[in-house]
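Q: Give me the 3D complex with magnesium ion.
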Amino acid sequence: MKEIASMHHVTFSYELAEEEPPDVQSKALDDVSFTLYEGEWLAVVGHNGSGKSTLAKLLIGLLFPSSGEVNLFLEHLTEDNLWETRSRMGIVFQNPDNQFVGSTVQDDVAFALENNGVPHEVMVKRVHEALEQVKMTDYINHEPHHLSGGQKQRVGIAGALALQPELLILDEATSMLDPQGREEVIEIVKKLRSEIGLTVLSITHDLEEVLLADRVLVMNEGKVLMTGTPEEIFQKGAELESIGLDLPFALRVSEFLREADVDIQGNHMTEEELVNELWTFHFSK
Ligand code: ADP
Ligand code: MG
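A: Here is the predicted complex, encoded as structure tokens.
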């Protein structure tokens, strides 16, 4: 498996105001190590303030570690290779209204390409392809601020895709969306993964998104608390709940039923799995 990004013992502290005594200097990231492989979908979860956005900012070189090393595309990230490295990644942030620079959808998606000096014909082609990938071609001449939240984030993703990134980072890109908008964005990410095998790092609170990931990194107080597949992570229900994370609805219902002496075998992640067991259970009694 080819490595796309990794952190090795990364620690990062924001500068605190001078009146803060040195011993309260808290680390936003504390000895964080992980590797992200090509084609992988890694979900990063953790309650507010656990260091998730700091992790994303270190990956795109908006911040540099206080100690430790960040590697991208098998190279140590430095101020010298920052711009070249950043051009190989796309990032979409939380608030869909803060990401627009163009007056039309087309201009907006073209913006970063224009900045990178991409020739006009190539640009037009790439903008069309990117909008097609997020199913927003019909809105090419629309004004971004008239779109729904889900459509805005899809345009945001198109802007990132037009750069033909090798890594797409989503920092709570679905958290301000209604359920339909969230569904639209998740569908697009699923499609990109199956069609072009894009590597995705998604920071999220959304359990559906977590269940779709290949691997999960759980952050707590700046540290990596655990990593594993979604199934492995959610087996540690009590530990996750103790750091303020939710468990999937079906898993909570399974546990509740077991506590009520219903003979449920599986630890079901999805409602469909749970319903299937309840169904066979019903007929076998
Ligand atoms: P998350 O994205 O998981 O909510 P962050 O990475 O934003 O967490 O924050 C991690 C820690 O760093 C928190 O304690 C937060 O208060 C602190 N922090 C984040 N951004 C800044 C900043 N610009 N200046 C000072 N402290 C910050
Ligand atoms: Mg954040």
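A quick observation: Residues 149 and 178 are 8 Å apart (CA to CA).
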